[in-house]
Amino acid sequence: MRVGLLTEGGYPYVSGEARLWCDRLVRGLGQHEFDVYALSRSERQEAQGWVELPPQIGRVRTAPLWNADDEALRAAGPRGGRGRRARRRFAECFGELADVVCRGGGAGADGPRSGEADGSHDDSSAGSHDGRSGDERDAVADRFSNALYGLAELARDEGGLVGALRSESAVRALERACRAPGALRPAHAARVPDLLTAAALMERALRPLSLDWYDAEGLGAVDLCHATSGGPAALPGLLAGHFAGVPLLVTEYGVQLRAHHLATGDMDLSAPARALLASFHGLLAAEVYRGATLITPGNTHARRWQERCGADRAKLRTVHPGMAADRFTEIGEGGYDEFAADPDTLLWVGRIEPAKDLISLLHAFAEIRAEVPGARLRIVGAPADGPEARAYLAHCRALAAQLFPDEAAGAHAVGDNPVSFEEIGGPDVPELADAYACGGIVVLSSVVEGFPISLVEAMFCGRATVSTDVGAVVEVIGGTGLVVPPRNPRALAEACVALLRDPERRARLGAAARARALELFTVEQNVAAFRSIYLEIVSHCPVRRDAVDATGEPVPFAHPAEACLPGRWAVAVGPASTAPELGAEAVGVPSWAAPEGPPTEVAEATGATEMRSTEASVRREGAAV
């Protein structure tokens, strides 16, 4: 089949998110052809180039989500349409969309509640909590859907809407919706700068509407669209379904709406702009989930968010991320005795940023040193992008130097600090596997976490773990490690000390963790799951296209008649003797291939065949005895 792989800020860019997962998926499904439709997030990402593409990728089409200068606006299409009728259509569609957004129709329009963004809040009901009935939510979703696809059709007719979505008429429509009765309370206070900011960010998310990807040579020619995230990445899939009837599969290992809430918390946005954007992204997420044929969250934490945003539980199917386990095989099979350089060494691996809460880890290690004086802490990782992460790393280094002055074994020995900061590729840690080989216990101290990759890597290596209860940690660990509350250095220290003092328990947990990781989190299981899902979607939701010959003339009888009938036309429901009125179809044979004779004779023939098969089986068993 031909698959349209939809990404945002990811594959095929070198610095893209989920780059490794997408590459392994494409290479693992070599029998299919892939077309990649990628949205880039920055000029720097585009300048860094692409990864080496496998041969099953037929074409790659890209579009930026970051440039909005005059040249880009002119290239994207006319501003406001070519004529009065187009401007009127735009005013109607965008006015409807703005009204729904300003009334707060999206799930989570007020942002996440306390604890929800970092995953520490367990929402067992997992439904939308906006106080609306099901019929009211459906009406809101219909209004947003009609406005969205109305804008898409206008963009297709007029050659793009980037300029129109940033025009004065769009800002005025947004202002009228904010001042209308029933609008969100923060929206009433929106001023012109807030409206300009909200309109610009909404246009960026809606930029796929202005792309020329949806004709018969683009996404209209694929059999399946697979979006690697929600939000703008999935929007081309929705439009391909709207224009060409292509089914959409949405995979989310990190929920896009959750990422939006976390990102806007770090941005310098006013309360009105934040409320408008939260409502818009909530509505967009709900529309993506409603339009998707199937949704594959990567863990239960992501699944709860999706259900809260309106996803139908019947469409949800958890598929854990696939990670390469072969590079950790030698360490995992060797165990502690062969590879652990120091069993009293605690190891932390990851990107250094405030969400990882290394401050709590350093304070916990101070208590650990009081109980186990020989313990050491190795922090392996580089700071995340941005000045904030670099400043956080400097702060952590200063705190480590303050809490743990250099120690020396004697008067003539060189002092050493029990806490070290290292990076992969250095002299002591040339490879990632070398980092896990030198640690006895792997620690995760995060306050915000999606899918904990470092924990899975530690499990592949057979290492015991101590983690904070955030994101999908509990689901990943599954009883093979210790879990403590976040922001609790004392609990973290007690758990680490318990494992440091019990080597047998540490080894037992490590062996169980490796077995669990090999069962659930390998590339092979991930690829096998998506191979089955692809075939299931295409068999249940085939794209109906008109068959034509080389000259463009329609080909009669190109599609078999039974392909247009709902259900399966040859169903194996059991032996015909249990349902003689069904005749040959009861044993999985279509009616046109059935032997001649009444249904009773067919049933008798089938029974005789089964009897001979049973007798042969008895003879073989007797011979074996």
Description of the structure:
The chain has helices at about 20-30, 45, 70-75, 85-100, 135-160, 160-165, 170-180, 185-190, 190-205, 235-245, 255-265, 270-290, 300-310, 330-340, 360-370, 385-405, 430-435, 455-460, 475, 490-500, 505-520, 525-540, 600-625; strands at about 1-10, 35-40, 55-65, 225, 250, 295, 345-350, 375-380, 420, 440-445, 465-470, 480-485. By secondary structure, the protein is α/β, with parallel strands linked by helices. The chain has a 6-stranded parallel β-sheet. Helix 1 (about 20-30) crosses helix 22. The longest helix has 26 residues, at about 600-625. The chain is globular, with a radius of gyration of 29 Å. Residues about 70-80, about 110-130, about 570-590 and about 600-625 have low confidence and may be disordered.
List key phrases describing it:
single chain; 625 residues; six-stranded parallel β-sheet; alpha/beta; disordered C terminus
Give a nutshell description of this structure.
The chain is built from 23 helices and twelve strands. It has 625 residues and is an alpha/beta fold. It is globular.
